[in-house]
């Protein structure tokens, strides 16, 4: 089982990865591949945190693959990317406020 400190580090790294993807979007690389890479990395990080979070990569990875093949999935991937960032921020705020050991 991961400690609170480990979860905080993974969430902060996930937020940094997403911020870097947004920064890379403004370069010649464009928005498509940085968003796909960040979304998949964060989804796999969520799976690393808990096996009960299997549904996150199950939703994100097919949408990312769809966007890799076609521009039709640009908005679904942007929505998933934003939801991942909001969930990470919520987890980080929760962990900065409470300790998991107190809850169990």
How much β-strand is present in the residues? under 5%
Spatial gap, N to C terminus = 13 Å
Question: What profile does the largest beta sheet have?
Answer: none
Q: Radius of gyration, Cα only, in angstroms?
A: 14 Å
User: What is the share of helical residues?
Assistant: over 70%
Low-pLDDT stretches are none
Tell me how many strands there are: 0
SS content category: mainly alpha
Helix segment tally: 5
Overall average pLDDT: 88
Shape descriptor: globular
The secondary-structure element order is: HHHHH
What do these coordinates show?
The protein has helices at residues 4-25, 32-49, 55-69, 74-97, 100-103. The model has no long low-confidence stretch (mean pLDDT 88). The chain has 104 residues and is mainly alpha-helical. Helix 2 crosses helix 4. The protein contains five helices and no strands. It is globular, with a radius of gyration of 14 Å. The longest helix is centred in the last third of the chain and has 24 residues, at 74-97.
Indicate the topology.
Layout: H1 4-25, H2 32-49, H3 55-69, H4 74-97, H5 100-103
Question: How do you describe this structure in short?
Answer:
This protein is mainly alpha-helical.
